[in-house]
Sequence to fold (165 residues):
Amino acid sequence: MVILSKIYTKTGDDGQTSTANNERVSKTSPIMEAIGAVDEANSAIGMATDEYNDIIERVQSDLFDLGAELAGASTITISENRITYLENVIDDYNEYLEPLRSFVLPTGALHNARTIVRRAEREVWKIKDVNPNIAKYLNRLSDLLFVMARYHNKGKEKVWVPNNG
Fold:
């Protein structure tokens, strides 16, 4: 359990911050860029919609775990079963969708969250010696958000028509 009794510490005023294992790093280091992108993704997912609360809540908890693992927490890890969960949910939603015949024009908060997750994945790939399940999880999460966005926009989805058709 995390207990925060004081929100500001002033320890980051010099452009440095501490990881979970108390290592001091630059706030612009690749690890902090990745953690920040995961945090942004988590916030965007939380704003996405109220329709999928059970999925959203599980994903947001996973993203906190993922950020903790990136920060060096030794007792938290993203395992293959979390990726399998995402794949199962993707398959469940995809059953209700028609196959794509063109690219989808991204609309709505789920698509926005998807693009932020993609950026978080790119940031994670810049880090050496990281659990490969972290990038894999983010990759599947962006796929899940894409399928959920398609499901959410079903019947009103717009597709790309090259050269305005």
About this structure: The two ends are 56 Å apart (CA to CA). The chain has one domain: 27-155. The first helix runs from residue 30 to 48. The mean pLDDT is 91.
